[in-house]
Amino acid sequence: MNKQLLLGATGLILVAGLFFFGRTISKKTTVANTSAEAKTAAPAFNITQYITEAKQKLTASQVLTLGKLENSVTRGDVLNQQIAANNQLANFWKDSARAFEPYIYYLSAAAKLDKSEKNLTFAAQLILDNLRAEQDAAKLDWKTEQAIELFEQAITLNPESDDLKIGLGSCYIYGKGRTGKPEETMKGIQQLLAVVRKDSLNMKAQLVLGVGGYVSGQYDKAIDRLTKVVKAEPNNLEAIAFLADAYANKGDKTEAIKWYMEMKRVANNPEYSKEIEVRIKHLQ
Fold it and tell me: Are 229 and 207 in contact (CB under 8 A)?
């Protein structure tokens, strides 16, 4: 197990896993093994193959509906038909089949064709929110690439948007940066630094910079950024979680326990408290 990789995901897993997805993901799970053997053993995620396999689990009625949607583009206003067809396919996989990866695949395809900042941003943010708790390395890489492409396309339409730059930077940090790729983390940090140089009070950017410092093992820098966030936003659970983990990994047990206890107070959730108690016991 790659220790740094696991540490880079712990705060994220605890916060995103429990509160974004309604369950606690085991801290024993890691995103990936960055050894050469693991890279050889784990092929890239293939969305076409994934969809083909997912179709085999559909009912006969669903297969019939899906076939009609896949063949709905005819002559005429092909672009608008393609956009409509992709949106319909996205809705099918979301509502009927309940499969996230095909849903975002078709939603992203529609947004790229539509070239609307609103739709590009919606799809990008949806993927970013999901990949934050992704523990499959191949899926994480694929989702990261999809979200980056969408954010970059949106930025070409609105190059002054700090929110879009934060979203793009977050993709690198919460995405490929978590798989032991420091160069990817640095790409994200550069995007975020451009925002905080202009507005040091942008706590959204400061938070992700703090996470970036934590993921890359720069705990002092992480603590500095995250402390700014919790001073400005005392109930920011994600900032508190990473601050506690940063102190723990730095070896400052007193401060770590202090912030773990603060996590319990802010979260006010029995399941979450159990996870925190485990961490505190490991420190004592």
Answer: yes
